[in-house]
Amino acid sequence: MSRGNIANLLKVPELEAFLKNRIIGNKELFLGIRDESIIIYYWGKNMMELASAGDQKGIVKISKFFIDRTAFCGLKFTQKADTMVFPFDPEFVQAFVESYPELKENVENALLESAPIEAKAGPLGQKYQGIIACNNNTNPDSDWYCVDLNYSAETTPLGRIDMVAISKAKQNGKHRIELIKC
User: Which of 25, 67, 76, 114 is the most buried (most CB within 10 A)?
Assistant: First the structure.
């Protein structure tokens, strides 16, 4: 499959409803596409990954450091390692709804707890980058939609791009794209 093809993932029952009802419109969350997965970012930090498991089934990958004190602890998992893998099903959606405040607190704490003081500027900058993208994407008056953060082009000398945005309106029949380095 080519980079960014999520067609199989979108065939998973109730996944689109989960994204529309729980993720899109939440100013704290940002969706990114990596290969065949959808990454859900909390203020620019990778919170979880949604991926296809074939046969219209989906899985959710969450760092084991993010699930403490959440309803995810009571769910069946398919893999236990640094990244816990859960089936995407109604029980997962319910656990997400019940645990969202603790989940986002765990994401913030896990990324900052062990970092030395001079290293905390990176995660803080990443958080504000996520805030900018989320605020922009939920603003109906914005002319742009941020489609990716920290994009690393595979075959260009550009290096890492902080934000990739696409125009909402077409100009001469085409959308414009902006590559932003902060």
Answer: 67
Q: What is the mean pLDDT of the chain?
A: 83
**Between vectors from CA 65 to CA 59 and to CA 69, what angle results, nearest 5°?**
90
Structure tokens belonging to residue 50:
């949604």
- Residue 82 and residue 140: Cα distance in Å, rounded? 38
Residue 75 in contact with residue 92, Cβ under 8 Å? yes
- Burial of residue 167, with CB atoms counted within 10 A of its CB: 0-12 exposed, 13-18 middle, 19 or more buried: middle
Phi and psi based region of residue 70 (left: phi greater than 0; alpha: psi -120 to 50; beta: remaining): beta
pLDDT at 150 over 90: no
Which is nearest to 75 in space by CA: 88, 56, 66, 58? 88
Q: Residue 43: which pLDDT band, with cuts at 50, 70 and 90?
A: confident
How far is 90 from 88, CA to CA, in rounded Å?
7
What is the b/e burial string over 130-162, where b = at least 16 CB atoms within 10 angstroms of the residue's CB?
bebbbebbeeeeeebebbbbbbeeeeeeeeebb
The verdict on pTM exceeding 0.85 is no
Q: Which residue has the higher pLDDT, 48 or 147?
A: 48
3-state class (DSSP) for residue 23: helix
State the Rg of the chain over Cα. 17
